């Protein structure tokens, strides 16, 4: 589409492990990409360097747009704890314990709305992704990222539920397994330590003595020649369904949307629902479990869409 830079644009930045990506969307009503740019994260060079990279990216965006926005959305792994004004559990560990939101606001010179990347994923899939396409009337959406980690995000009537302590949707660290593997969050047996890609690969290695990727394991299970691969798939299907049933009994979502590498495994969609149905309160959960459609772009789109709400408030005023 023709570039159309003006104050209705939504600006967002996604803070990733290898890249920091910025996007400018046309507007909340028409969220199409009009500019997109990325820089390397290089977190091994330290916290100040990461802030400098944000600044470099933001300056490029400003140059291109020819103006400076009032507010920008930033999606980040980990959790920003508002009471302590610090980051926790971010995989770019140099950011942990730092007043990341304040530092970004100081560095960029504008207001920053900071949200967890799984929450941004859920928001993007709800507003402009698969939920918008297939179930636009959905009130309550639960977004799940199943990949190298496990993340969750709750969106109610178009808004992320961040919660009082910023941990709304942190389902990846719900407790699932007694005596389970220890987790970087400080606990053990978390969902992430049971059915993330690496956790399942570890499980397969433990029972078979062989190292395989999750994709290889699912193909071996499909071919029916490897009982250990089947056992690993059963573990995924059963534990994922069980963990989802907890969410369903609390928020009863209209749609559950799945993203991340493990979401490419087809059996999840049919078989996990069977486990889920045995465990939820009314035993007949019929809400759809669908695959995300925005891919890696969900994070940065979600970050920009964080600003959508602010914009509508400005417009009302
Ligand atoms: Zn954990």
Automatic annotation (TrEMBL):
UniProt keyword annotations, A-Z: Kinase, Transferase
Name this protein carries in UniProt: Sugar kinase
Taxonomic path: Bacteria, Pseudomonadati, Bacteroidota, Cytophagia, Cytophagales
Organism: Echinicola strongylocentroti
Pfam families named in the record: ROK (PF00480)
Keyword Mitochondrion: no
Listed SUPFAM superfamilies: Actin-like ATPase domain
GO molecular function, one term: hexokinase activity
Gene3D superfamilies xref list: 3.30.420.40
Domain of life: Bacteria
């Amino acid at each position: 589409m023709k570039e159309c830079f003006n104050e209705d644009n939504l600006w967002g930045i996604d803070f990733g492990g290898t890249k920091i990506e910025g996007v400018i969307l046309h507007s909340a009503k028409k969220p199409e990409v009009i500019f997109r740019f990325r820089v390397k994260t290089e977190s091994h060079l330290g916290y100040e360097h990461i802030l400098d990279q944000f600044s470099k990216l933001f300056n490029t965006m400003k140059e291109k747009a020819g103006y400076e926005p009032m507010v920008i959305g930033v999606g980040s792994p980990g959790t920003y704890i508002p009471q302590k004004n610090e980051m926790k559990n971010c995989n770019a560990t140099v950011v942990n314990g730092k007043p990341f939101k304040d530092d970004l606001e100081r560095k960029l010179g504008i207001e920053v709305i900071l949200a967890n990347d799984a929450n941004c994923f859920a928001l993007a899939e709800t507003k402009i992704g698969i939920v918008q396409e297939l179930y636009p009337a959905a009130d309550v959406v639960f977004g799940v990222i199943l990949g190298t980690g496990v993340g969750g995000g709750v969106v109610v009537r178009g808004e992320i539920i961040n919660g009082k302590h910023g941990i709304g949707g942190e389902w990846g660290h719900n407790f699932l397994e007694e005596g389970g593997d220890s987790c970087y969050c400080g606990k053990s047996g978390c969902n992430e330590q049971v059915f993330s890609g690496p956790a399942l690969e570890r499980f397969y290695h433990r029972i078979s003595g062989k190292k395989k990727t999750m994709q290889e394991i699912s193909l071996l299970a499909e071919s029916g020649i490897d009982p250990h691969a089947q056992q690993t798939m059963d573990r995924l299907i059963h534990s994922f369904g069980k963990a989802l049933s907890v969410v369903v009994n609390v928020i009863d979502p209209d749609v559950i949307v799945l993203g991340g590498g493990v979401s490419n495994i087809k059996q999840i969609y049919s078989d996990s629902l069977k486990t889920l149905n045995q465990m939820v309160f009314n035993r007949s959960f019929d809400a759809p479990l669908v695959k995300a459609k925005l891919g890696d772009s969900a994070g940065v789109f979600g970050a920009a869409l964080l600003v959508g709400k602010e914009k509508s408030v400005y417009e009302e005023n």
